[in-house]
Amino acid sequence: MVASSYANWVEVPVIDLSDDEEIQQGSPPAKRRCLSPSTSAMPRQEPQGPRHSFLSNPQSALRRLGTAIFPEANTDFLRHLEDQGFAVLQGILGSMGSCQAFLHEFWTAMKAVAPSIDPARESTWNFPKGFRGIVTSYGLPQADFAWSIRAHPRVHTAFARIFGTTDLVVSLDAIIAEARPAKTKLQPWLHKDQHPSHAGLSIQAVYTHFGSAPGESGTCVVPGSHRVTYDWERSARSDHVRAPEDSFQSQVLKPDVPPDSMVFFNSRLVHASQSGPQAPAQRPARLGVCVAYAPRERRSEATRRKKEKAYLEGKCSSHWPCDRFSLKPPLKQYQILKGAASLPPPPASGERLSLL
C-alpha cells in the first residue's frame, strides 16, 4: 500500500524474470547479470538530458516523475544502478513481524548503551552523536539489529547480482540513528567515496527502516555523476573526495525511499547525507544501517583477521569490505555521551565471521 507522503513513487511492475535464475558459483560470464566497471582510460562525458530515468518498459505504471522503486534486484534494477548510479530496492525484511523485531532490537541496544532512553518518551532520545545521524560508536554497528540487515539473504542476493558472484565479504559499516533532524542551514556535504585512481566496482547501500520522503532526512545523490571523472577528483589524497561547493546543488536528487527499503549507490557517485526540515513525530527522524559487500577475492587473509578482531571488539569500519578496509577513528570529546556504555562484545557467530 502506497503511503500518501510518497506521491512521487514510480510503480515498477514485476517483469518476466524467467531468465534471472539464481547465480551459481562458477557460472559462465555470459549467464551472469552483473555490473562491470568501465575499463576505458578516458573519462566519460557528463550525460545529457534528464538527471534520472526510469525503466525501459514504456508500459510501466508511472504515477508521475519520481524515483523508480524496484521489487527485486532484477535486470532493470541493475540497469538503473549502472546508468544512474543508484537504485532503490524495497521490502528488505519483508514482513511486519520482521520489521517490528528490528525496531525492538534497535531500542534494546540503544537502552543498553544509554539506560535513560525510553522509546515511549521522545524527550529522552539522546542518541550517540554522529554526523547527521551516522553512528560509529558504543558497539552499535555490530549490534543484532545491524546484523539482521547486513546478513539478510535479500541484501546478500542483491549484491550477488551486482557483482556476479555469491562469494562475498561484508563491511563493518555504521548505523544511522537520528532522533530529530540536525538544525543546519548548510547544504549537503557532497562527495564521492572512491578516488578515480582506485579501480574496481564499489557499491554501497543504506537501509532505511521508516522510509524517507523527499522532504525528510536521508541520502541524496547526483544521478549520473559516477560516469564522469572531474578535474577536482584527481588531486584528492584519499577515497573521500569532496565536491566543490555549489557545483551540483541544482542537480541533487533526494530519492523517495519506502519503509523497509534500501538505496544502493556507486561509490563514485556524488552523494551526501541530507538533513530535511520534516520529521514525523513519535519516531526517530532516521533509523538505518549502512552495508557494502565486495567479492571475497579482493580480501586477503591478513585483512580477514583485522576484520574479525574489529568485529569482536564492536568497532566500526569504513564502507570498504576488502583490502582497503580501515577502522573509523575514536570518538572525539564532544561526541562522548554522558552516562553511556558500550555494548558487550558481539557473539562469535560462525555465520557472521564467515562473511568477514
Q: What do you see in this structure?
A:
Strands 1, 2, 3, 4, 5, 6, 8, 11 and 13 form a 9-stranded mixed beta sheet that branches. This protein starts with 8 loop residues before the first strand and ends with a helix. It has one domain (70-354): Jelly Rolls (Sandwich), CATH 2.60.120.620. β2, α1 and β3 form a beta-alpha-beta unit. The model is unreliable at 1-33 and 37-65 (pLDDT under 50). It is 19% helix and 15% strand. α2 (96-113) runs antiparallel to α3. It has 7 helices and 13 strands. With 356 residues, it is an alpha+beta fold. The longest helix has 18 residues, at 96-113.
Distance between the termini: 37 Å
Poorly predicted regions are: 1-33, 37-65
**How much helix, percentage-wise, in residues?**
10-25%
CATH architecture: Sandwich
Overall pLDDT confidence: 82
Indicate the CATH class: Mainly Beta
Strand residue content: 15-25%
Which class of secondary structure composition applies to the elements?
A: alpha+beta
Give a short account of the largest sheet: 9 strands, mixed
What global shape is seen?
globular
Could you name the CATH homologous superfamily? q2cbj1_9rhob like domain
Number of domains: 1
Number of helices: 7
Q: What's the helix-strand series? A: EEHEHEHHEEEEEHEEEEHH
Give the beta-strand count.
13
**CATH topology category name:** Jelly Rolls
Whole-number radius of gyration?
20 Å
